[in-house]
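batch_manifest entry 22 of 60
target: Pimeloyl-ACP methyl ester carboxylesterase
source organism: Lentzea xinjiangensis
requested by: lab member K.T.
priority: normal
notes from requester: please return tokens only, no post-processing; we will run our own comparison against the previous entry in this batch. if the run fails, retry once and flag.
--- input ---
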Amino acid sequence: MVQVHHKNDLGGSTMTISRFANDKARQRYHAVYDELLDWPLPHEDLTVETSFGPTYVRRSGSGAGEPLVLLHGLATTSLVWQRFVADIGRDHVLYAVDSMGEAGRSVQTRPITDHQDNADWLAEVLAGLGHDRYHLVGLSRGGWLALNQAIRSPGRVARVTAFDPGGFMESMNTGRLYLFTGLAVMLMPAFLRRRVKPDGKYGVFVDPLLRSLVLAGLGFQMKIFVLSHFGDDELRSISVPTRVVLAGKGSVHDAAEATARLARLAPDAEVVTVDVVHGLGLVVPPLLREHVTACESRTA
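--- output ---
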């Protein structure tokens, strides 16, 4: 087995290759994945070969708008978008990606050890999809991937819309605590989970689709560089039209601090705060279209 020793900002573990613990765990996860799949548009399954492994992409939608690449949050797969894309799929081609190194339909074959590996993987995906330029739309870790791409490999990036991305706090302790507490919420008995408000801080962890995916994925051993803090010079380097949508009731960073930092370092980026918690409330159809369209109206 290939091993690369590297400290992951969110995990601190030694890097190897992400994989299911065994074939039974893989089959169980894929059965849950297929049962949950309810994509609202006619779609095509694509496999893009990359040097990090075959990447699964679901192509759907139509229209003359810029192609949108949809990047999901941690451990949620491309299925997280299926409740929200029917509207924007009428005038955009959509590419919903299962991120490499996470449970899903992509299969990792090479370590992903740092920011640049993430950017190199996604650059290969974008090249394989065949368009010159893309609008990257990411939620949570997907927003971090989109911003990371704009910083490290912007060649095919036309613009970025990032919904409450990670990467704005120097310490990842807050994010780790949030995730570990969220997993505990998922494991609580049903009578206790019913007390968790869907629009509350941990509401995303009682969402039926996300809970099913995460629990099915407990047999998946994730060994990738998840995300890290963006340095000042990195944020200054962003040159593509960018819109960052922050959760005002944030759990992974302070929206006011992130806004001030972006205003100082990336003044051309638009920053908007929405009075919701971190999670799916940021990308419900009216908000998703509003912010994607607003970003499309910007020029470099």
